[in-house]
Design brief:
With 120 residues, this protein is mainly alpha-helical. It has a domain at 31-95. Helix content is 57%, strand content 0%. It has helices at residues 17-50, 62-95. α1 (17-50) runs antiparallel to α2 (62-95). The longest helix has 34 residues, at 17-50.
């Protein structure tokens, strides 16, 4: 039995600071879209139980309405928590003063030096 032949793959990915900031902002926007869908679904749930959706007649009891209200409150509470996290993420991104590293702490590529300065 032989070992598998794995090709040497060394992908090069370059992301600038501006690209990283844009990707972070896009991620916030996509999460906001997801939250808007959750909020819309909760609104439709309330409309269904109350009977205000077109073409439906209400057959919900007070207990049903109260149970749905409790569930919607819990879901919206979680949505609000997520919104606060996204707000903090956005503020961090907008307030960051990210500058590119000019002096990299690692030694340059090439032959490894045989002697190093003593550690202090």
């Amino acid at each position: 039995m032989s070992l598998p032949n794995v090709p040497n793959i060394t992908p090069t990915i370059t992301v600038t600071t501006a690209d990283a900031i844009n990707l972070l902002l896009i991620s916030i926007a996509l999460e906001e879209i997801g939250l808007s869908h959750i909020i819309n679904a909760e609104a439709e749930k309330i409309q269904y139980v109350v009977g205000t959706l077109p073409g439906l007649t209400p057959h919900s009891s007070i207990e049903d309405i109260l149970r749905v209200d409790k569930d919607v409150r819990a879901t919206l509470s979680e949505v609000i928590r997520k919104e606060m996290l996204l707000q903090m993420k956005l503020e961090t991104i907008l307030n960051s003063r990210i500058s590119p590293i000019t002096n990299h702490p690692c030694p340059p590529e090439g032959p490894t030096p045989t002697t190093y300065a003593p550690y202090r």
